[in-house]
Amino acid sequence: MNDLSDTLQNIKMITGVENVVLVQKDGVPVASAGVWFSKEEVFAVASSASAIFGVARLIHNDFKYLLMESDTSKVFLAALPNDPDYFLTITTAPRVNLAALFIEMRRNLSHLSFLLRQQAEGRAPPLRSYSLDETQRVLRGFAVSEGDGTSYVLSRTVVSLDRSHAVALRSLLRQISDSIPRVSSVFLSLTGGVRISLDGFTDDRLAAMSFALHDASERVIRTLRNSSLATVLCETDSVRHFTYSVPNGVFSLWVEKSSQKLGLMRLLLKHFITEMRRVLASASVVRPSIPADLRELLLSGISEESILMTRREQ
User: Fold this and answer.
1) What is the domain range of residue 173?
2) pLDDT tens-digit series, residues 149-197
3) Which residues of 62-93 are buried (b: 16+ CB within 10 A; e: fewer)?
């Protein structure tokens, strides 16, 4: 275990890196390096990162790393080579030296895998289960206000685009496709089921999963840093997958890894994302209303012995 901690400490020494945690795929931390106020914080970052790790694996089975960026911090997930049972989570200051971090990662990921194989001796990582009381205690730990009263609100919006909005957005998508070589997919996934893409893209599953990736990352950033997510970069051996937050939706770009330098690509995207946000900010947004009888059916308490059925009069 000392060797694992020493390896994580090598990464922690990079300027801007705050915490490094080696995590099992089920969310249980194995070792950590950094400044923590309590043991609970280590488990909080591990369990939150495990959620986004699972989504990333579902979309990109061979993903190498995922970078979530906000105004206040960056959260970095890195898969261990040839070891799907563990991954590395790194939280950093907003101005961390990413180049130095990537170099140090390449030096240490293989070594971590070697150390884990030595210590595990072929055993699968243990899975952790919780009783009902333990689950309730964990949930109470995420509460931000005093008292037992908790209310849950489901709020969804529908984006309404007129022809000028649609034409402007499709024009920006076309410019991105023309400016960046080897783009495989570029599209917008908006709330309310609106998808805007070029004619060559027809995979609805890809749009839905890209939205889910960004949404899960947003929840992780809010849990860990109480901040708003700006962008996510997921990289595999052959593909870079960018997602950017836009008003009431997510912009997604899939591009071959060898197409262009990462820094130049991010500079190009910054201009186009700014324009997309400007166009979408002027679109009308409505909140769909729920009929009173349906709302009563969905939100009222229903006993186990009876089922309430309602219908609307014509």
Assistant:
1) 158-203+212-286
2) 555 454 556 777 888 988 899 999 999 999 998 998 899 988 766 788 8
3) ebbbbbbbbeebbbbbbbbeebeebbbbbbbe
My answer on whether 109 and 177 are in the same domain is no
Least confident of 97-101, 146-150, 174-178: 146-150
Q: Mark whether 110 and 166 lie in a shared domain.
A: no
**Residue 148 domain flag:** no
In angstroms, rounded to a whole number, what is the distance separating the alpha carbons of residues 198 and 107?
40
116 and 162 share one domain: no
More confident residue, 272 or 73: 272
Chain centroid to Cα 254, Å, comes to 16
Nearby residues of 257 by Cβ (< 8 Å), 6 or more positions away: 235, 236, 237, 238, 239, 240
Number of domains in the chain: 2
User: Could you tell me if residue 304 is inside a domain?
Assistant: no
DSSP 162: -
Assess contact for 33 and 5: CB atoms under 8 A: yes
**Which among 120, 150, 171 is the end of a domain?**
120
pLDDT at 277: 93
pLDDT at residue number 169 = 92
Give the whole-angstrom CA distance, residue 187 versus residue 201. 8
52 and 103 part of one domain? yes
* C-alpha to C-alpha distances, 89 to 44, 50, 116, 204, nearest whole angstrom: 12, 9, 16, 30
Give the three-class secondary structure for 172.
Answer: helix
* 53 sits in which H/E element: helix 39-59
Q: Which two tokens stand for residue 151?
A: 């209310």
